Structures are given as structure tokens and as C-alpha cells.
Amino acid sequence: MTMKREDMFLEDRHPAVLRGESLSVSYESRRVFKGLDLSIPEGQITVIVGPNACGKSSLLRTLSRLLVPEQGQVLLRDREIHRYGSREVARILGLLPQSSSAPAGICVADLVARGRFPHQTLLRQWTAADEQAVAQAMQATGVHSLADATLEELSGGQRQRVWLAMLLAQETPVMLLDEPTTWLDICHQLEVLELCRRLNREQGRTLVMVLHDLNQAARYADYLVAMKAGEIVAAGAPERILTAELVERVFSIRARIETDPVTGCPWVLPIASVGRMDDGRFLKE
Amino acid sequence: MSRLRSSVWVWAPGRCSLRLCPRSMAAATVLSLLTLAGLLVSLSVGQVEIGPDRIVRILAGTDPDAMARRILLDIRLPRGLTAVFVGAALAVSGAVFQSVSRNALGSPDLIGFTTGAASGAIVQIVFFRSGAAGVMVAAVAGGLLTAVVVYALAARRRVVGSYRLVLVGIGMGSILSALNGLMLAKGALDNAIMANLWLAGSLSARNWGHVVPVMLGCILLIPVIVLLARQLSLVEMGDDLAAQLGVRVERVRLVMVLCAVILAALATGAAGPIAFIALAAPQLAGRLTPAGRLPVMVAAAMGALLMVIADLIGHVLPLGVSLPIGRLTGVVGGLYLIWLLSRSRTL
Fold first, then answer.
1. Which pTM was predicted?
2. Count of domains forming chain A
3. Which letter, b or e, does each residue of A79-99 get, where b requires 16 or more Cβ atoms within 10 Å of its Cβ?
4. pLDDT higher for B17 or A148?
5. Which chain A residues are within 8 Å of B4, Cβ to Cβ?
6. Which of B4, B244, B292 has its CB closest to that of A66?
7. The pLDDT of residue A11
8. pLDDT over threshold 50, residue A209
9. Which domain CATH number covers A250?
């Protein structure tokens, strides 16, 4: 059981801040995952990869208490997540869903300010701390100059940074991001990923991201989780787990793993699809 | 008082800090004053002129003229106040539904709830020939029952999707509307005529029995809606995002929908199905307030003002008959809806 050893190795240095224990989730009659275990190491960047519909988003939603598992439990700082108050969780853990819609005509500063909701009460609706958190979040994401612009006026990349700013303003030590680079061009993708790394390295935040690009995952992850069909196939440091066999098993492609000459991270060179899709139908050759 | 952004002021007395929106407060104040002015005009005009000074004296109990007193207190004041509270109730109900459905068309008159209230009322009128109180109770019951059915049909895995709510509501509304027609065709002629009059939506012959329920509804439910408005506006960004911010999405939505259904049903019970106030007032209010918040109070004032104006037009127009207010708002609101649809890029 290499996975168990990996977990133990990890726990020595980075205790799990968020942990899913034998989670089972299904939609209608379709089982998404069953008996799934996952520990998110504190202060690290965890990246989850896997083919479409393998349960990545459902896993993030379960870990952030939006989806109640039929079996198993989620522990946030060693306490069952449903035992916290809803706003209490929202002050520790933030989730950026895959898609959100901005109310028509809302300006950037107002949208970012909504991230302060879990810190506010009926009689304390806006304090200096709120003001500061919003200003810092807009500064960190580079949208401070757009404060008065409406969301409709922004490009896709700017819009994604505004949503990130809202999550930053929430000031949670743990941030879960569901495909934060989707819809972005390569420059904005790197911008977002570098921002995430800075948040981790400079502010010590724990990050969990779902990414599609394997090379980006290998480069930015401290802890890589590969999922397929609702199961975790491998988890660990990218250079330890990222092998040609794993890539073939998870993504059904033949690939070569080289060393990235710039960063020294594993570098996945896709060669060909092996043609067998998830449902077992033979599509190619 | 510190300035947060152009649209919001923070007022921090003691350990509290409250966000105030000067534009919304100004809009609500101006609309309320206009409503009050309109109400005063509508109280004074009629076959017997009662000037504003006499209205004040009668209300203070110092006017000796018993006839004027009765006209004002038993006829005009109930009618005027019905207009005010029905307008406010419909507008707030519309604001909530438009937010829940994230759609300008998601107002209670379009998604079947007022039709359901009307069905309840028609059953009472056609089959039981009951008076105002019975009609009111039946309308509220009909509205609530419709809401429960629509909600149950729209719910999947205990989660109610916005578009499902609107679509199921529209379907339900069509069924009920056909049912209403059937009852009118099948009922005894006298009763059917009564019911038809009621269906046109009317403010004539309102008494305190019409005013009090909808007034109480507004006084009790609008504050609840104001308190939850901010959370509901977070839900507009998507259930997941709101839930991760700590909003109990399903609970907030359920309480809000319940309050909104009761308000719409009470309004329908008091004045019959009044078209388009619920649709137009929140949209107009939204144009007067900064984006991104649910303008509950401004919508309430706007709804009251629209109703009072419609009522005034209804009885100063030289038509000789008093025009059913529901038909009037229907014509005006229909034009507004067409204008809205022709300008909107998203509908």
C-alpha cells in the first residue's frame, strides 16, 4: 500500500487540515465515488487531476460541505465539518466554484466586498478589517484599478481575477479552486497560477485546485492527486508519482515523462491516445 | 460616518457599523412622499370634495360633518389604503421572486401564484357565495397551495432550481387559469358574474375587512424580507458560491418564497388579481438603486405609488364607470413589458 505510506510520510511534516474519510456520494442513481479517503496537507498546494466526470468537482463540493456524503465524514481541523456553524466554516475554508454569475451591473469593488459576508453580522456590517481585506485582495489580484468598473466591461481573465479577489477577501486559510484557469488564455492561466503560488508561499494558505493541464499541475503542485472514475489512483509529490504508467491508467494516453529543463519538474509529453474510453467502447484503431 | 464607496455609507454608532445606501434611502423617501400625496388627492376627489385640511380634521376627530366623515373613513380611506398595501405587497413579492428565479419574468402573477389565489377565491364565490373574509381566506389558501405544489414539483433532491421554478410555475398557472375559466362557465350565472368582476381586479367597495389582512401582512413580512435581502442577493451569484460564503441557501430561499407567496395571496385576496405591479415595480426600483442589492423598500414604495396612480387614473378618467384597476394596470404593465423585452439583450 504505497498510498498509505505516502500519507503517513506527508502527515509527519504537514498535518491534514482537511480530511475526507470513506466518503460516498451519488447523484440520483449514479455513484460518483464510494469509500474515498483524502487528506489535504496544511500549508501546501494540492492539485487534483483526472479525466472529465471523474468526480473532481463533487469531491471539492463534498470537502467544502456543499454536498452531504451518504457515508463517511469530512473533518476540518479534526472536527466534523457539519458541526461548525455555516459562517464559521466560511471563515476557515473558501471555495471558488467552476462557474458563478455576477448580478447585472455590479461593480468590481462591490462584488469583492461580498467575500466579507461570513465576517459580518447584522449589527456589524462593515468594519475597518473588511475595508482592509477588500483593498488587499484587489491589490493582490491586480484589479484595484478596476474597482469602479462593472463586471460586464471586463475580459474573461480580469473577471476570473475578480472572483479570486472575492475569495481572497474572505480571508480563509484554506482555499479550494475548481478549475480556476478554465476559459483563460495561457498568459492569464500562468498569472492565476503564480498568484496562487504566492498566496501559498507568502501567506501560508492551503490551496486545493482542480487543473486540466498536467504540466501545470506538475509544476505548481506540492501534492498531486490523480483521480479516475471516482477513485484516487495515486497521491503524492509530482516527481514521485507522475509516471508514464499512471498517465496511461488515468487519462488513457501514452506519454513520455521527461524532466522540465526550466524547472526540473516532471514534464508530460503526450504521444497518443490509447483509444479506450471510460465506458469501455473501442473508439480508435 | 465614513465613506466606503460612492454607493454606500457606513454609519458606526458605538460598536455597531451599518451600511447605508443614500441613493436607496432617497429613492424610498421620495416615492413614499409621492405616494402620500397621491393618496391625499385620491381621498379628496369624488362626488363630494373633501380637501386635505378637512381630511386631517376628520382623522383627528374634530370635524362635525358626519357625512364627510363616513365617506372618508368607510369608503375612501379603505380604498386608498388597499391600493397602497396591495401595491407594496405585490411589489415586494415580485422583487423576491425575480431574485429567486434570477429572471425579470419570475413574478408571482406570471408563475401561477396569483392565479392560484384567484382559483381559491373563485371556488368560494362560485360555489359557496361567501363574503369578503371567506374570499380572502380562500385566496391565501389557494396561493399557498399552489406554491407548495409548484415548489414540490420543482424540487429535485430537495434543491429547487431557479429555471425549474419558473417553468413549473408557468405550467401550473396555465392549468389553473383554464380551471378558473371552467368554473366560471360551469357556475350559476349570478355567481359567475360576481367572480368575473372580482377577476378584473377592483378597488371599488373595499372596506376595512379588505385592508387589515394585507396591511398586517406587509407590517409583519416585509421586515423579515428586508433582513434576509442581503443573503438572497448573494444567492443570485449561484447556490454554491452563496453556500460557501455561509448562506443557508435552501432555508433562506424557502422563507423568502413563503413570505412572498403570502404577500401576493393577501394582495390578490384584497383586490383581485392585479396585473404587472409585481413585475414592473421591482424593475423600476432596480433602476433607481445601485446594482447588486435587493431593493425591497424602494420596490414597496414604488408598488404603492403605481397602485395609487392607477387608482387615481381610474376614477378621474371621464368614463362614467369606475374602471377595474386590474385591467388598467394590465394595459400599462403590458406596454412596459413589451418595452422591457425589446430593450433587453439577456431575455
1. 0.88
2. 1
3. eebeebebbebbbbbbbbbbe
4. A148
5. 126, 131
6. B244
7. 55
8. yes
9. 3.40.50.300
